[in-house]
Amino acid sequence: MDSDQTPQKPRFAGSRARVGSHTLDWPVEYGGRTYTEIHLARLTASDVAAFQASLAKLAPDAIVHCPIYRDADGALIPDAVMDALDDDDAFELEKKVADFLPRRFRGAPDGVSGPQTGATTEPSSEK
């Protein structure tokens, strides 16, 4: 490589969507701006590492939003905006977010816990 050339930044190949969006039914005003849409962006390995490092510095009972929520320019949506969302908008985002979260942040799939044989569990107390 010539010294005049700058190295290319890696980019994702393929056609799978790495960004989605949700138009808010109940827009939120904050910091002189009106948020009408929230984008969901898949995280890279470095995004996850930075998020995990930031979690280690927080109090155990702190409420933290995953850095998946972005504006149209790619900037993080402020926590105050996420906390202020109308519950219907928050619910719609939760339904969409699973497609964009890394597997390590997804909850256990339905049916993973409980009896592995398909049998029902015994009552935990006697009658």
TrEMBL record:
Q: Which InterPro entries match?
A: Phage_tail_E/E (IPR019289)
Top-rank taxon, per record? Bacteria
Which Pfam families does its entry note? Phage_TAC_7 (PF10109)
For bias type Polar residues, the affected ranges are 114-127
Which residue ranges does the record annotate as region Disordered? 104-127
From what organism does this protein derive? Answer: Rhodoblastus acidophilus (Rhodopseudomonas acidophila)
Q: What is this protein called?
A: Phage tail assembly chaperone protein, E, or 41 or 14
